[in-house]
## 1
Amino acid sequence: MRSRAAGWGLLLAVGLALPWLIYPVLAVDILAWGLFAAAFDILLGCTGLLSFGHAAFFGTGAYAAAVVALRLGVAFPWDAVAGAVAAALLALPLMALSIRRTGISFAMITLAFAQMVFYVANAWRSLTGGENGITGVPRGEVLGWSLSPAVAYYYAAFPLVALGLLLCWRIVRSPFGRVLLAIRENEVRTQSLGYPVSRYKLIATVLSCALSGLAGGVWVLNHGFVALDAVHWTTSGTVVVMVLLGGMATRLGPLVGAALVMLLRDFLSRWTDAWGIATGTIFIAVILVFRQGIVGTLEGLVAGRGGPAAAPAAPPVEEAASGLR
Amino acid sequence: MENVLLQAFNGLINGAFYALLSLGLAVIFGMLRVLNFMHGALYMLGAFGAYLLTAELGLSFWWALVVSPLAVAAVGFLLERVFLRWLYDLDPLYNLLLTFGLALAIQDGMRLRFGMQGVPYSAPPQLQGALQIGVMFFPTYRLFVLAFSVLVCLGTWWVIERTRVGMVIRAATEKPMLTRALGIDVDRWIPPVFAFGVALAGLAGVLAAPMRNVSPLMGADLIITTFAIVVIGGMGSILGSVVTGFIVGVAAALGAVYYPPIANTLVFILMALVLLLRPQGLFGSAEAG
């Protein structure tokens, strides 16, 4: 129990110190992508659904937050929340259709719907600015406190992202999350136990998409700029690699993965723009030899099972929801 | 009316590319249970192969049409042996992610070498100009693309339906365990079938080279449209992939006559409708994923 509290304290301390350790804009990027990855893992790790189209919801959140902040003058945090609402509204019809299939078909379908969102964003110039994107999105102020300095914005975004993360973790550990785990392990059996599987899946996907939209909103206010790459499938791929690298179905894995990928991208950008080769290589390496990810492997070591043994498709239920110990 | 006919013709051409690509995907998926995300990148490699053979070695388009797909097949064969084969016993999603990573790396590598702009490539002299059919003129090269890809699709269908090799492939696609139990070494057929599937992508790339800008990302968005076509046709259905490719090509082109922005998105709307009304796809069987 004491180590548990110490773990939470350490996490909070790292979170509060982050903008003094690294460039504050990068620190907010880690927050936003960390939330995005954690929201994504509700589906991948917890429910066993690989969505290859989450950029659509992250990007929709970013565009929606940018539009309401710029055109309607909505203040923080409500502009970011508007991003979450927009993403949820988009997710409801698209995911209701996508969850009619599972496994590899679900991945293809979400990918295809995200590509549709990409084309729509490209064509709807009056709203999204087409290829030019939306620039000059203001951060505004909270309680008379200007968010223009990057550090100020970090501390404004921190509680919002923390709430989002707590929600993600709470969902996984709740009775609702237990049913999602059961669906992951055996969908047919869960159905025959009397759970309305499709309804559970729909709620899980819409929640995940809404939190992804919130992450997109936090992210767009950080940069003041959003363009088509936010809804492109490469963004969907980035969040997948974050979760895999950190370890899916672990509490901290998505955060660790997001932080590593963002730091690595920042580090590499000093020498090369070959980010695709770097991401691709991480993908290949993680998939071939490191399928449990960093946190998954560490948890395995702590639990004494040891070693990067051949990973199962997903860790057992107990491990998935154990988190900090 | 002429405009509509011309659009329908152009739609058939697009459909020919969709058909070649989704045919390769379907063959690979059937045999390996791998959804090959690299397919678009290998299509791009096929086009660059044609460019390099012509620009660097001075070979004609006709040589490129043979050599480049073979080179892509060799690349695919190597990648399958080095990377893909370790994951066949796991959830197929792992191989999707692996090929996604490979596609990112291949595309970015080509971008570093050739830049984003891409390179020019012209149709062979025998196929330049236009042919008059009835009252309309059609570009000769496009007529060739249409005829050639239909021939390739028919040829593939013939191999799969009428030859012994095809029989093994169909058996291994439908009942892999039973096929093994009957003494057929299914694993032996996996590399050549994968190489053949990606050769189709390389072939589509060569055919596209004179028509479309040869650039590192030419296959990046095309592959996703092709995925949607595979969903519409039904996963793993070879006939479905070809027919749906042509249908979607024509439908998108005709839709664009009335409302231009729909050219890119119609395929996804069709996919949504199919999911709503017939989730297993137009030609799919109910048990597939």
Note: The beta strands of chain B are 130-133, 136-139.
## 2
Amino acid sequence: MGLFKFLKEKFTKKKEEKVELTPESKKEEESLKKYNDGLEKSRKNFSNKLDELAKRYKSANQEYFEELEEILIEADCGVSFTINTIENLLEYTKENSITNPKEINEMLVDRMFLNYLKEGEDIKNELTFDHKPVILLMTGVNGVGKTTTIAKLAKRYIAQGKKVMLVAADTFRAGAKEQLTIWANRLEIPIVTGEDNEDPASVAYKGTKKGIDEEFDLVIIDTAGRLQNKKNLMEELRKIYNVVTKLSEKTPECFLVIDATTGQNGVLQAKAFKELINITGIVITKMDGTSKGGIILAIREELGIPVRFIGLGEKDSDLEEFDLDKYLYGLCSSLIKDE
Amino acid sequence: MAFEALSEKFSKVIKKIKGESHLSEKNMDEMLKEVRIALLEADVNYKVVRDFVNGVKEKALGEKVFDQLNPSEMVVKIVRDELVNLLGSDACELTYNKNKPTIVLLVGLQGSGKTTTAGKLAYLMKNKLNKRVLMAACDVYRPAAIDQLDQIAKQINVPLVNFGTKENPVNIALKAKEQAYNDHYDVLIIDTAGRLQIDEALMEELKNIKEKVAPDEILLLTDAMAGQDSVNVAKKFNEDLTLTGAIMSKMDGDSRGGAALSIAHVTGVPIKFIGTGEKISDLDIFHPDRMAERILGMGDVLTLIDKVSENIDEKDAKKSVKKMVEGNFTLEDMLKQMKQVQKLGSLGGILKLIPGMPKVNDAQLSAAEKEMKNFEVIINSMTPEERAHPEILKNSRKVRIAKGSGKTNADVNKVLKKYDQMKLMMKQMRGKNGKFNFPSGMGINGKMPF
């Protein structure tokens, strides 16, 4: 079965059958809508381009593949990923004498995400609450949206009935502590903060300790943004990680937050953070812009780190568990409808 | 990482072209292909790359590169010059009004560094240019954004117009302007909320601020790590607001910052400042030439490549490579290699040409150079037979050599140890791919060859 057909059946058939809406299927539909809305701008730049391209060519030739290459590069998939994918596709279509542009487009999308799946062990995106407290360390370079993502994650798990607290271990940036405190107040959950320029590891320690003593389900620790080539700052993060790991029953969850507008530096970011601490997942933010976030493919291919959550808007409810099928549907729904 | 690949590719292409008596359109295309990949890897937008490479090609053809003595050099020079040209401008400095406040409006996406940069700009103007600076906090959306600016303002002792988050940003900007005029400030810096360029409501708000306040400078903040989409961002901001310049933040990271080229190409506005660190004083004037080299990821490596290919005696190198592969590598060969490297100039000079080599300090450099000289003296004190068959070197010979060269026994052992290491390395390389490519591996992996 073709990829598009599969997605179409998965996501549109239900509607036609008019199955009675259970709360669960309703939630599922809402989630799909969020993907579809959030990725609207990305779709315009990605699948609409593929669509236009297919309409311009009767059969695919060398030029066609060059234009495909352009679309992938513009999605920030990276040069080597793009060249490999296109070459692979070119070879396959030649061997099997496939020249129908639409068919080729579908195969391209399929191939782009094939590796994503291949690399994946079965990963559960949601946090697993099999011990108390689950510690979640949020890391990333400056300005990617760590603090906002923390608020979104906290809201998500509060809604699931979890007892959540926040720890403001960014003691460096002006206003960072205040920003997280405002969120904690809005969400009506406790927060542990430190003095300005206090050792962030000591704040993380205090927070984790409180989380254990008061039996919270989830402790989310905010850390300062740091560029991955800053040795001292990276060492500081390692220290935070070590302190928290020592206290915690299980190794903490460590999310790396990546901005969807990031270019090829995203791979270096993921690599550096992964080498330093055990990164267990990526949160990709700002996907509601025009960026395509192709960098997650390169990261997945090179480092095998999965995306766990995806930020699809500015509201504190605009965070979804990453679901490849929904993501593809959101990114390609304009192509799928033609099927 | 990316740099190694690029320099290798370039040197390969250059070598290829060097072998030919003149540059043809075909081999120039090959070079330009590498340039294209370098630019794409640096996150320059695809379309911008295409235009740029075509422009370079035209220029190269127009300048009759083909008749030049060293055509490969010419092509590279044109690439670099064109980059500098596109990125560069005389309008790098801000212009200040004489009799009224100069109003600077900072705009950009979320997380691009507006608030931090507002503080840095204020600090620079106040402390280096002796301006009386006022700041205005118009980001009423992001929690604690105003707190952040307030803390920075206090830290650098600059007054802040702060109406909290209840007031409309347009009104805040207007009131700030009034205050700047009434109190005769030299500069007013307005910080705004981050927004997506496709957020019509928030873009409308910026247009309103622009209309009411009439800023002298509207500066777009761009993240040095930004990818392909930076073109769309810059384009829309420019269409809506007519930017006067850009500031590139987070340049202290290890991204290549190709977005700078995209923005320059699409908007034509100059990049005026770059953020180079987390401290309040870490804001620098933008240098187009440095940026060009960073985007290409090569520093002066092209100079280095040329130096290498000019100074290495191909015959000699080939001979020693052959010997190495066959396992007949002698001390004599090691000495020859060292001399070839020395021909390039001082080790320190060479390493300085290579970007991304910050780990070697001057002390280490001079130590390495001294070691090379020691090796030469010691090997020169050996007999030809000893040089060809170092295994015959026993204690008495070593003592003689040490005396003859004015060094110690330990120094002689050092040479022999190095020789053994190199021989072992050759063996391993032979195991890998059967050939040893001298000297492209030299120094580039961060290890000293000697």
Note: Chain A has two domains: 28-121+331-336, 134-322.
## 3
Amino acid sequence: MTDRSPSDRTPQFDPALARGLVSRRGMLAGIGATGLATLLAACGTKGTAGKANPTAQAATDRSDTEKVVSWSNWPEYIDVDDKTKTHPTLDAFTKQTGIKVTYTEDYNDNDEFFAKVQPQLRAGADTGRDVWCSTDWMVAKLIRLNWVQKLDKANIPNAKNLQDTLVNVEFDPGRQFSLPWQSGFTGIGYNPKATGGRKIETYEQLLTDKTLKGKVTLLTEMRDTVGMMLLAMGKDPANFTDADFDAAIKEIETAKNSGQLKGFTGNEYGKGLASGDIAACLAWTGDVVQLQADNPALGYTLPASGHMIWSDNFVIPNKAKHKKNAEVLIDYYYDPKVMAQVVDYVNYISVVKGAEQLLLADDPEVAKNPLIFPSEAVLARAHVFRGLTEEEETKYNKAFQALTTGG
Amino acid sequence: MSSAAGLGGGPPAGSPAAAARPGRRFAGVPYFLLLPGLLWLGVFFVVPMLFLLSQSLQTGTLETGYRLTFHFATYTDALSQFSRQFLRSFEYAFLATLLALLIGYPLAYAIALKAGRWKPVLLVMVVAPFFTSFLLRTLAWQTILNSDGLVMRFFRGTHLISLTSALGWTNGNQLLSSPLAVVTGLTYNFLPFMVLPLFASLDRLDPRLLEAAGDLYATPLTAFRRVTLPMSMPGVVAGTLLTFIPAAGDFINSQLLGNPKTAMIGQVIEGYFLRINDYPTAAALSFALMVTILVLVSVYVRRSGTEELV
């Protein structure tokens, strides 16, 4: 029996056969057979567990056995020893308490950071961080979601040194969940070399002055860019309507369409402003004070119509493993002597009482800088963006997103 | 005895059961060999795609959770709102691909056919930029194109800047923050993806074919047109695909080198995922982008007759 029928033959590996096995149509048919709809439905996500539940939010605190604390912060937001590249105040903290600090500069943007830690927090898991510094409105959001823990003030006796104006904030009355790290103003920075030597003093100039065409940047922080616009329009960012918001967006949109704007930035505007590629921009105080050290000609104005003030605040996320150590760390920075050292370097507004007096002796130049220790009159013109509901936040964010990447 | 036959010995005479056995044994082999690849595709492509598709049809918010409601309106809303960015992405990606081809082809040709012993060095130089991060390479263009730079001085000196401004390629007397800068960045960043496949196909070209063409009285130009170019078509197709697809979805170049009016769809998707946390819209835009690219690519590949590439 040498003559076998074709069906008996050993099948050869045939590329066409292989392709047939995985043809796109075949694949789709297979998926269809398993019930696409049920499969898709399985991909839904649950909402966040509604009510606050302190026991569910806390993890077993290992502070007493593990002398470590992990702190995430914004880049260039703490004192640095120019020679050794270490952080003197952190080293002193470790020496004093025996707690080693893992200091990570991985907080570049509130939304981005939120997106990064959101999966763990939603799942009720440890984010690997014990404390970080979020901007006011992000703190509001984290509190609303019950994703941050109440601070144990018994571990933070120095909290009494907090500036009085910052104690009863709308999003966290009495500061149960958060304590500020640094504050700053949002104003207008400009490079006289690129503006033809002229001062830029109003938002209108930014948006309409033809000599600045294509060389103006605004901020990706919606509350800063729109807040300043509202002020320029004579509205109050702490109390505005939907119509006011839309009108503000429209004003900026008009400027964008005329080619006036170079873009919307985070704090990467520094390089461009120093080189003159950016003639004028919305800018944060500390950044500009630091830039002025190398480029004394740079100008900074707080418009007469008012300016925004914000703080970045310490918060302790759910399931943090070293909550007590984090609180000891916060307490340490609320010592005016320590905060004075930090402010002397980062040049933002001190949130701790007494730092100014200490600096007057050590570094009077910084202590007398009105952008670091502002006068009562300047503080009176500082405004805060009002708290938003989730619905408003989504709506405003969308409108703002359409502005920054639309058109 | 029969097991010995099953191991591939001589044909077991007479018994039909024994005759069928080798067949059954080999039938599974193609499937078996495909398994690693299929698993990879399944876990890292099909499942994520289904997640994405599902996400795009859900409604809800991050705080209340998302539920699948087959809300197809997300697609129509997102596409009508961001059609300009969509089209712009393809326009920029197309221009960048074309430029990369115009720059990359002569380069690959020179490396493959004229470089001699310098070939390895030149190839390393093509790949060398990959040793630095994508972000840094893009940021470097900010320095190259800024107002004090040589390029800008050249453009100002020759008044080319007025021409590009008139054409709408630049804005406000500067090179940065313009469509020109974005397309330049895209071209630069994806050029190696064009050069390498082109090199691979040109390097395989048998020089005897060109000699034969010469013997048959073809001029060098004709030889190129009739021999080299057709032989390098697989490289051209692969190179253009590898350039076009990532360029269309890119969001770094337009963010760092562009202005608000050069926003590409990748930027919009990034914003919706990371800033607004509107996952359904972001997923719908991603899915639509992918499907569009898939359709364009299939048409292109079918047209160019190099189906064995996909």
Note: Chain B touches chain A through 61 residues (CB under 8 Å).
## 4
Amino acid sequence: MRLRLLVRTVSEMCITVGAVIVLFVVYVLFWTGVRADTSMDHEISGLQDQWAGRPLSTATATATPTASPAATAPQQPAYRDGTAFAVMYIPRLGRDWHKPVLQGTGTGTLKKGLGHYAATARLGATGNFAVAGHRRTYGDPFKDFPLLRKGDTVVLTDGTTWYTYEIDRGPYKTVPSDIGVIDPVPVKSGFTAAGRYLTLTTCEPEWGHSHRLIAWGHLAATQPVEDGMPDSLSG
Amino acid sequence: MYGWIWRHLPGNAWVRALISLLLVLAVIYVLFQYVFPWAEPLLPFNDVTVNEGMAAVR
């Protein structure tokens, strides 16, 4: 009788643990995506509300990528940690693919969108605008990262200007300690002179963390939001 | 274990079944709301940056 109770209790424990593991898989694969989609939509609509309330006259768009950044940079407010400041569009990852970009790359921040490396350049500024995003879980923003090719456009807007970056170097696999990839002039990117660069990072392999995938681009064009969406998005 | 819980629930079979269901839902809620968000960062899917833990080096 004692043995039967023991066997039954152990069996029930095993079934319980199994059920919890299945639930955890559901959480990781499905629920994090639901939560992330909700908070990303929330971030984007918050940004749009904020931009809608801003008078157009404050649009101090840099006319050309070659113009001096010193003229525009100081008068813009600093990005606040954990707060969305831009929306990124990558047509290659899907016509509707757009995600908020938040300041910082903390775990909590990356649950709500893409994260801008705080130590790197501002959007559109000289230097390297570096952004990290989840490959899997939390909405899978960079699931199709390996599809990025030279010439693909990455479009960002901060509410006043559309910034169109062009990918120069497709997915480059490296190790997590290779912090040179987000330098102002990224090492191994093929860029040699200072410029307005973009770096995207995510994890590799898809479900692992042993490596990182990197994509580099440069600022190809800017236009004020009053002029409408860039051709690469509307076309 | 489950037999012990069942025996200690009040009411007839229907009431017990209803309470059991509520208990199961409560456990799932606690797991999704508190336990899994704590456990998930221990998995490798969060490591998407190149300078993780190396901010001091830069």
Note: The longest helix of chain A spans residues 2-52.
